[in-house]
From TrEMBL:
Signal peptide: none annotated. InterPro entries: FAD-bd, FAD/NAD-bd_sf, FAD_mOase_fung. Belongs to the paxM FAD-dependent monooxygenase family. This is FAD-binding domain-containing protein. Residues 7-345 form the FAD-binding domain. Keywords: FAD, Flavoprotein, Oxidoreductase. Pfam families: FAD_binding_3. The keyword Flavoprotein applies.
């Protein structure tokens, strides 16, 4: 039973926002979701990877079966180099054996539709609601104003509105007024982009077999291809740009920009007799976006907190963007559930109690996300041969490193969040026990072995 005395206003009907709505519902915490777009699940041409760390939480929420019905299990992962050399890994099937969950690939819009259609209180999800202003009133909650003149009152605002976040902007504005210098200009300008990405979906090509994921690496570019159900292929091409852009000055790519790149790269070899031109000719939908990279330091201020891409943006080569967002939702719900359960006054939380909740949440997730972010940052540079060191490591070390790269990934996944107020899924495998503190502190350079992990779309 939801307690209306504590309401969370979630801004953004994203994977992060809708996952949080489900977590809060299970915790008995009231929420309202405000989405600026007209529809929750538009076709954008992108795929998304759900790995065991996100899949276990979705299973707790009763959603993973719906995801699994739309996906094709992966068994093998292959990496191909320009000289024709390639190596393979049984990493996908090992994931399933260790954790009880496969690598699941589906369209982003399909995952959003699952999250939306299965939410028990759809009347609390509002579209066409662009947030323009947030007011915090000391000791009395928050007010969220939208472009159409509506106003929503709550105890907490959660920004899940993506990289171009209005909530993050409002949080910074309030911090600048009340605690000047808390959010530095260096932090505000810390997001950069060196890569672009073309996401696409194509019709099936017989030479690319179900259950086999392929990564073709090259100088300044890489492409990852995943055969999917119903005769389709998910693919994304990562491209090194000619300059490094900072947030606010970065370009937006049109369909014409994407098509121009794709026409130029039709001869890029993928596997056997398949070139990128075959995928391009069989295309159904595609789009191009900038790949920003950053982990912000300030995740909350007052009664505002941000999650997902608002606070951490990484390249898609590790497939962890959506999974980290789902973990954010679970950890925040855990903290709120614990605090409200022990609240001594009418199931409400004071400003000081809210600050404690959000402080614990951000401390936990910043440490977790930084590790994954560093891994993702290194892997994309290996896949695109960013320098000689990365090129040599991927070509001459990783193929001969045995199980070590896989074990590093498994340790990272084993440290994932879980909802504390819902029983663990019966399907969980033996790989879930948390690693020791020593295992959590793996130095960033050891993540070079993670180049064996290649998953599309966050």
């Amino acid at each position: 039973m939801e307690d209306p005395r504590f309401r969370v206003i979630i801004v953004g009907g994203s994977i992060a926002g809708l996952s949080l709505a489900h977590c809060l519902y299970k915790a008995g915490i009231d929420c309202t979701v405000l989405e600026k777009r007209h529809e929750i699940a538009p076709q954008e041409g992108a795929s998304v990877a759900i790995l065991p760390n996100g899949g276990r939480i979705l299973e707790q929420l009763g959603l993973y079966d719906a995801v699994e019905r739309l996906t094709e299990p992966l068994d093998l992962s292959h990496v191909r180099f320009p000289d024709g050399f390639h190596f393979s890994s049984d990493y996908p099937s090992t994931l399933r054996e260790r954790f009880g969950f496969s690598m699941a690939f589906l369209e982003r819009r399909q995952l959003l539709q699952i999250l939306y259609s299965s939410f028990p209180r759809k009347a609390r999800i509002h579209t066409d609601k662009t947030v323009v202003r947030i007011e915090q009133r000391e000791g009395s909650g928050v007010l969220v104003y939208t472009q159409d003149g509506s106003c929503y009152a709550g105890a907490l605002v959660v920004g899940a509105d993506g990289i171009h976040s209005n909530v993050r902007t409002e949080m910074w504005r309030m911090a600048d007024l009340r605690r000047p210098g808390l959010v530095t200009e260096q932090e505000k300008n810390g997001m950069t982009a060196e890569y672009g990405c073309i996401f696409g979906i194509s019709s099936a090509i017989p030479e690319l077999k179900l259950g086999h994921q392929i990564t073709s690496v090259d100088n300044g570019r890489s492409i990852i291809v995943v055969p999917a159900r119903r005769g389709r292929l998910f693919w994304f091409m990562v491209l090194k740009l000619d300059t490094t852009y900072r947030y606010g000055s970065a370009p937006r790519f049109s369909p014409q920009d994407a098509a121009k790149w794709c026409e130029q790269l039709k001869d890029l070899h993928i596997w056997d007799n398949v070139d990128f031109g075959h995928l391009w000719q069989a295309r159904e939908t595609y789009s191009m976006t900038l790949l920003e990279e950053n982990v912000f330091q300030t995740w909350h201020f007052g009664r505002i907190v941000c999650i997902g891409d608002n606070m951490h943006k990484m390249t898609p080569n590790l497939g962890q963007g959506a999974n980290c967002a789902i973990e954010d939702a679970a950890v925040l719900a855990n903290e709120l559930h614990r605090a409200l359960k022990s609240a001594s006054h009418d199931h409400s939380l004071s400003d000081q109690e809210i600050d404690g909740v959000l402080g614990r949440f951000s401390k936990t997730q910043i440490a977790r996300v930084r590790t994954i972010f560093q891994a993702s940052r290194i892997v994309v540079r290996m896949h695109t041969s960013d320098n000689l060191f990365y090129r040599l490591v991927l070509r001459y070390y990783v193929p001969y490193a045995g199980k070590r790269p896989m074990e590093l990934v498994l340790k990272m996944l084993a440290d994932a969040a879980v909802l504390h107020f819902i029983p663990l899924p019966q399907r969980c495998g033996a790989g879930w026990p948390r690693p020791t503190r020593k295992e959590q502190s793996v130095r960033a350079w050891t993540w070079m072995s993670l180049a064996m992990l290649k998953c599309p779309a966050t």
